[in-house]
Amino acid sequence: MVKKRYLIDTNTLTTPFRQYYPFDLFPSFWNWLMPLIQNGTVVVLDKVYDELKKGKDELASWMVDVPRDKILSSRNAEIVSVYQEILTYIQESPSYADKALRTWAKEDTADPWLIAAAKVNGFELVTFEQSAGKITNPSKNPKIPDIAPSFQVHCISLFIMMRDEHFCI
Hints:
- The chain contains 9 helices and 5 strands.
- It is an alpha/beta fold.
- The protein has a 5-stranded parallel sheet.
- Helix 8 (144-147) links the parallel strand 4 and strand 5.
- It is globular and about 45 Å long.
């Protein structure tokens, strides 16, 4: 049986940090997660790492302990190629407005990079982002769960990953 590997969206760390599992109340969550990153079960993309390191909080400090060799580079040629396909998909889709492409084409927007990296590496993409549902007017704001399936990328929530990886306080 192939072991699942997970690629985490920024909100997969910021939401628990701010709302569910603050460091002072639930160190067990963070102590459970770090070894999964260190052993490669959970993967952090460089774009996500960079977003999190901008903070001046405990989460940014915690990220310092993520070994640099465990940060996945978005500069991989295959990832860049799929990233370009994702931007083309948004550009050509009647579901998305020009602003959607401009937003996702920004160098520091992690979402299309996450989908591309998940596709290339066969990762489950872990995000708290929710689908926009049926889009009737061109949207300015693409959502990972709406784009990812077009690239055969499966999205799950952090809670599903926690169950799959047997998190227990």
